[in-house]
Amino acid sequence: MTIDLPPDGSGDDALTGAMPFVRETFGLEVVRVAALGSNEDVNVVASLADGSRVLLKVSHPGISRTALEAQNAALRWLGQHSAVSFEVPALCTSLGGREIEPWIDDERLARVLTFVEGALPAAAARPAAGLATELGRTAGRLALALATFDQPELPDGGQWDLRNARAVVEDAVSLSLGEELLATLAAAESRMASADSSLRVQAIHGDLTADNVVLDDAGSVRGVIDFGDVGRGWLAAEIAVLACSLLQHDGDPVEEALQAVAAFDRECPLADADIVALWPLVVSRAVVLVASAARVLADDPSNTYAQVRAPLERRMLERALSLSFEEAEILVRAALGRLAAMPSDVAPMIAGLEDADEADLSVASAVHSSGGWTREGHIEKTLLQLGGFVGATVTRYSEHRLTPGAITEVLPRSLAIGIDAVVPAGTVVRAPADGVVVLGGAVAMEGAEALASTGVVLDRGATAWARGAEPTRLAGERVRAGDVIGRAVARSPLVPARGGDTGLPEAIVGIGWCLAGGLEPPVLVAPHTESLWRVACPDPSALVGRAPEIPTQVSAPGALLARRDAIFATVQEHYYAEPPQFERGWRHHLVDTKGRAYLDMINNVAILGHGEPRLTDAVAAQMARLNTNSRFHYEALVEFSEALAARAPDGLDVVLLVNSGSEAVDLAIRVARAATGRSDILALTEAYHGWTVGADAISTSIGDNPSALATRPEWVHLLDAPNTYRGRHRGTGAPLYLADALVRLDALDAAGVALAGIVSEPIFGNGGGTLLPDGYLRGLWKAVRARGGVCVSDEVQVSYGRLGEYFWGFEQQGVVPDVIAVAKAMGNGHPLGAVITTREIADAFAVEGSFFSSAGGSPVSCVVGSTVLRVLEEDSLQENALVVGALLANGLRALAARYPVLGEVHGMGLYLGVEVVSGGPDGPDPDTAAAICVDLLEEGVIVQPTGDHKNVLKIKPPLTIDADAVERFLAALDGVMERRASRAAM
Description:
Helix content: 25-40%
Largest sheet: 8 strands, mixed
Number of helices: 25
Strand content: 15-25%
CATH superfamily of the largest domain: Type I PLP-dependent aspartate aminotransferase-like (Major domain)
């Protein structure tokens, strides 16, 4: 946004005296003044009569004249330096010929600087494309210019000088988080201990972030501002501060930070010591920010600046710690191109693997079926089994694996950057070429025991690693190609040994390259940095005597979506502009092709969850025996129909089976018409019933069809949705909706309309679970029946125990319908729907001839339906909806009390909706609702907006969801809302 002034700042106490001071002391004709925010100083923008602007800076009492003179000298230096391609503030001279004057209270010092015009980078969840590189380039040029600046009075950087990080954090030790921060800082200090004596010290800006630059219209940096932290410090700290600031963002913040580092290095090359220290300094900066904020808020809980910044600073620390120091250094070296050359002539480290079978551990692999991947040690056990059964086995390089971390980590590690070989224990590992032995730490496969690593730093600089091989040589020992450097270590005896009791136990040896010196890479890395990892740790197939891997065919971002859009009608929408590609599901999680599991908070179709093995087995068994249509006679149809009717109220004991909810509603309309001999149907606004001609005719949700209310056929008659949150009657006025409906029925009577019946949802599904006023359906259905009409309850979305306290939605209203239309949950994703009604009404439908649905009631569909009902009962999923749903609703209401943008929480059980509003019920905010959903996707949570205004977060997860998942969801939503509030306040 461009820096503009408010209409009039003259009444602000912070501005008292600013206008006369600038006029009388500096001789500038001021016409208007306005305050700018600041952490410590007072900053006032003054508009001058000639149209230009200047900045009055009144320093805080703790800053000395000497320090200000040093800042002034730095500004003059930069203003004349050839390396500086951007503008910096220039100093104005007072009428007395001075750059610094005492402020009117004589306790502080004041300066007037030229105002650097431009646009501030937006405080957005994601920075603009290219901004990280632009900032890095600017920081590099600034550091290069300041490298030759020498001012004797230039101070050290004070509390923000990372050389003083320990003192800042120790000051916060008395706080609850102080000890933890001190331990984190100690780890960073230990990592950079070998480099800090070699780090260059010079003048640095000390706080060059997006907050302290202004941009031109093209998005390039026009100027750098706020030199209040200029002082002596480590050169590497200049770029570390910038890199740390970028970690507050969503998306790929580590990649953006590395882009900034690379751009800095191109302008101001980093030495090896700088590279070693860089990420420890990033962590140190984040620790200092979090510790400082904690101290400020402990002393002054009302400090707005600290309150606003704290969530984003915690985010920086969280992201900084997502990488170990060793892997961060590997990535930095890869980003800077400081890597060894890839050797071309190496011998295998393990012999005899040329024809070994290749294991598939990708997301879509059958080895992950039935949720096996969620158990610790799954991959190791799978590999040992494969080795024991089929002989030598190798894995695939650059494969996205599925591990338990997919659920527990926001950015899970899934990309394999090496090859694992399953071999007999004791298999020798040899040096692939001449070099020096290097020994690694205990690096573990996901969920497995940690084993030693041995490797060889080749004469050309690349390192070949063997993880899980006991070293037979000492570190630093010189070896020749083919020399034995280790032996494969047996893993836990999870499977029979090769050759039975007399055979050798299996071992897993991980083979891989690292071109970043003797650093040891992890087993798996996060996909968001995979391009750099492939550069730093290239395909090691040659090290196991195999031809290079053909990369796994994973569609490039957007490629599959483009194919979908090319073949699919555009009216068939998809969630998200850039959706993940899901190829596996398990319980209440959806798993993308890169091995990340997303918490599925909207799939009311998969009521048993994804991948339910009892359902899978039942379908497979029935499909293997028979699948045909319901005109044939078979047991599965009878068993399912009986079980379904047994769940309905007494008297509703006849079942008609179809394929979907739309068909069920459409059929219910036909049944009502046949039973009454009439055509007209009563329906409610804000409702969705389906896509068939009949179901669509009574669907009125303008969120799904903007012209719905204007295009209903003449046989459809509408009542206002009894929305007690946003509708005509609210609070104690809710009973008036029934009165209005009865008036409407009288009007229809007067117009000669004879209703076949009413079709209504007992709870508004597309409205996010909006409950009807108590007694509404009881009174309305009584009036419809008194006129000879039939009452149809559309249970497609809200039934099957999802409400927790009730199996059917109509039970919440204390009524019994004449016809039930149901689908979705009854098939757990399999196309299955039903109409349940009385024998009398069903027999009346026979006037239209015989009814038949080809796939409705097929043996497979019926087995699906019976199994769903059985598993619902066996796993007490309706009770789970009651208990876990209450946890979820209470958590959402607690968040709504903290964040005004979250309004009413609708629904019950595990069918909930959260209004997103601006100012209350009459301000639905679809843009913010959509943005929250995108932000939640970044956190690994699937939520989507619904409702007529697309402003209600629909929350209707599989009934398998547990308390841990609820806690994860609430924490994710809390974090998203907190960061959104912080950015909005900046």
